[in-house]
Design a protein that fits this description.
10% helix; mainly beta; 6-stranded antiparallel beta sheet; 283 residues
């Protein structure tokens, strides 16, 4: 994630650039911030095109509380929206500091296997017309285990076989760190998906790419499949056991400066936009 000049946080200072790290927030202030972020996330109304009569459900707890003091003091929380137990949208709500003001952004990515549409405060703000993720088999993976606990262990092992890096506009590459525990584990009410988990590859605690691992139905049985979702606008690529399996190019830099409701990137499976700018910093 990153903020521009905000799942859900993009930033105008890229990794490696100088930034002044803010002081750590007291626990009480941090809890209030997450509460405020979740209240704002709850204002989304999201539907899949395949099931327009049903709204996605915002999970009760934030999937991750994160910050990125190495950039512009980004401070955010990651949320997941589900339908019948399967994550269909991921987003982050965050703030970043510029001089003596804060700006607040949202960053979102579709995890759906078809189109979806999102409204925020009564207005459509995002409507990607295609699948947000595309699954493919995990090469060499064993069959999904019969016991849920064993399947979780399998997913953690499979996730460690992937490596993700990001490359900035100057060509500098950054290796991302796999968070050991999944952001979300799910066993949906879906005949097509037996089990699944979302894993984050992060810079510090800031997720920049999301790995989905699912035990998905094939003609004869279930098999482990994977997909990736970007959470930064610069170039990202992933390897599996040393072989490149996913790459997304850098997006035009104007995505950093969008305001909510603008038409640009509403049809993108990933986007980020400002909700409020120039908030005075309360010391």
């Amino acid at each position: 994630m990153n903020a521009a000049s905000l799942v859900i946080v993009l930033c105008s200072v890229l990794p490696g650039q100088a930034a002044t790290a803010p002081q750590a927030q007291p626990a009480s202030r941090s809890a209030k911030a997450v509460e405020a972020f979740r209240a704002e996330a709850a204002e989304y109304v999201v539907r899949l095109a395949s099931r327009p009569e049903e709204k996605l459900v915002l999970e009760k707890e934030a999937a991750l509380r994160w910050d990125n003091p190495a950039r512009t003091g980004e401070d955010g929380a990651l949320f997941v929206w589900t339908l019948h137990g399967r994550p269909e949208m991921i987003g982050t709500i965050f703030t970043y500091r510029f001089k003596e003001t804060l700006s607040r952004k949202h960053e979102v990515h579709s995890l759906a296997t078809g189109p979806l549409a999102a409204e925020f405060r009564g207005k459509q703000v995002w409507a990607p017309p295609k699948a947000g993720v595309v699954f493919q088999p995990v090469k060499g993976a064993p069959p999904p285990a019969a016991i849920p606990r064993q399947r979780l262990s399998q997913m953690k092992t499979l996730a460690r076989d992937f490596a993700v890096s990001m490359t900035d506009a100057e060509g500098q590459q950054f290796q991302l760190r796999l968070l050991a525990q999944p952001l979300v584990r799910y066993e949906p009410q879906d005949k097509q998906v037996q089990d699944g988990a979302l894993f984050a590859f992060s810079l510090g605690t800031d997720p920049e790419a999301i790995l989905l691992l699912e035990a998905r139905a094939t003609k004869d049985a279930f098999e482990w499949q994977y997909a990736f979702a970007r959470f930064h606008y610069i170039e990202l690529k992933a390897q599996h056991q040393g072989r490149e399996v996913w790459r997304v190019p850098a997006l035009p830099p104007d995505i950093m400066n969008l305001d909510i409701g603008q038409a640009r990137y509403q049809d993108s499976v990933y986007t980020t936009y400002h909700v409020e700018r120039g908030i005075p910093v309360a010391e």
